[in-house]
Amino acid sequence: MMDVLKIATAGSVDDGKSTLIGRLLYDTQSLTSDKLEAIEKSSKQKGYDYLDFSLATDGLVAEREQGITIDVAHIYFSTAKKSYIIADSPGHVEYTRNMVTGASTSQVSIILIDARKGVIEQTYRHFFINNLLRIKEVIVAINKMDLVDYSEEVFNTIRADFQALNAKSTFKEQTVNYIPLSAINGGNIVTTSENMPWYHGPTILDYLENLKATEVHEKGQFRFPIQTVIRPKTSEYHDFRGYAGKIYGADISVGDKVCVLPSLNESRITKIHFFDQEYQSAEAGSSISIELADDINVTRGDMIVKATELPTIEKEIHAIVCWMDHKKMVIGAKYMLQHHSNRVLGKVENILNTIATDYSGKSPASELALNEIGEVVIKLSKAIYFDKYEEHKSNGSFILIDVATNTTAAVGFIQ
């Protein structure tokens, strides 16, 4: 099976993000002939002497006519080595929630910088969100080098400014790579630019091709949230009782001793099924069903873990949340907290502060408004089984749902 690499992109207005993505699609022959014809026709109509690749990513005609791209678009393309999914989200401050959404399932992030403008406030926000979500691979794409005469000095200055920003990050496990580009001319996107002989690093595609596509939720302890209990009503499988879900954190094997939460009943794995096949072991990231040696009560929302690796089991959590609702979060407000398939009623016990996305620090707060990021304490009606986000991304994240409107009000990261 071909590796799938998920990429988040972020950039300010007119940094050339759409052109970069369009150029990637064009140079990897991923554009359909009708899309290419539309780009050629539109570029001619506008009097351009080049192809306007930014049109490749435009979804709605109305958006294009207004000159804006909203929400998170997912763009797919493939090479002989890999398949790629690009989560393209707008970079403005009012779209912080969209950026968090786009980056939450990505393994690598491309942060675009206009070579004429350098590191600006929005660059800080884009990098802050990468750090918050613990994205390990970051490409700093310094675009529009053609407009600064392909100057090595400009590139070095921007790189030094970004390195100073990187020094403020508390997340030290990421790799940051700097690539100078001219997206409009295709320089260092897929092919090496002859105009920048001083740059000896990879092109964007070279770098992506050589990255190992791994499970977004990195390795940790074994966590198996139950999606559904399988009880076939057939005579052939009359006594079958399987528990289906996705493995997070670590691999599992037949014979492993496990514990079911919240009951704390212990058992042993006797069988692992993937579709109609049976296996002795299964890797993290696999969606499987398992059978246990003991007939114990297990329902959707429960979690199976290794008997020696219990998570934290608490009725109160301390978390950083990105607020996504027009209706403000206030102390005392109640929400449905969804952690994997487990839903628990929760109340905002306290709002500790808001966190500035430009690394300028925290400010005391009593409410959170749309697109704000803050630290909160949430009291739950019953315990959930979690790890800190920095130790286990999948088991340390959750969403808050507005009970009245059923909208996703926030995404949270347990501290």
Describe the overall structure.
With 415 residues, this protein is an alpha+beta fold. The chain has three domains: 3-209, P-loop containing nucleotide triphosphate hydrolases (Rossmann fold, 3-Layer(aba) Sandwich), CATH 3.40.50; 223-306, Elongation Factor Tu (Ef-tu), domain 3 (Beta Barrel), CATH 2.40.30.10; 312-414, Elongation Factor Tu (Ef-tu), domain 3, CATH 2.40.30.10. The chain contains seven helices and 24 strands. The protein has helices spanning 17-27, 33-45, 61-66, 96-103, 121-132, 152-166, 204-209, and strands at residues 3-10, 73-78, 82-88, 108-114, 137-143, 175-180, 223-230, 242-246, 252-253, 257-261, 265-274, 277-279, 281-282, 287-292, 303-306, 312-323, 329-330, 334-339, 342-355, 362-364, 367-368, 373-386, 397-401, 408-414. The chain has a six-stranded mixed sheet, sandwiched between helices. A six-stranded antiparallel beta barrel has the order 7-8-14-11-10-15. A six-stranded antiparallel β-barrel has the order 16-22-19-18-23-24. α4 crosses α5. The longest helix is centred in the middle third of the chain and has 15 residues, at 152-166. The protein starts with a strand and ends with a strand. 40% of the residues are buried. Mean pLDDT is 89; it is low at 60-65.
Question: What keyword list fits this structure?
Answer:
7 helices; Rossmann fold; Elongation Factor Tu (Ef-tu), domain 3; 36% strand; six-stranded antiparallel beta barrel; six-stranded mixed sheet; 415 residues; alpha+beta
Brief digest:
With 415 residues, the chain is an alpha+beta fold.
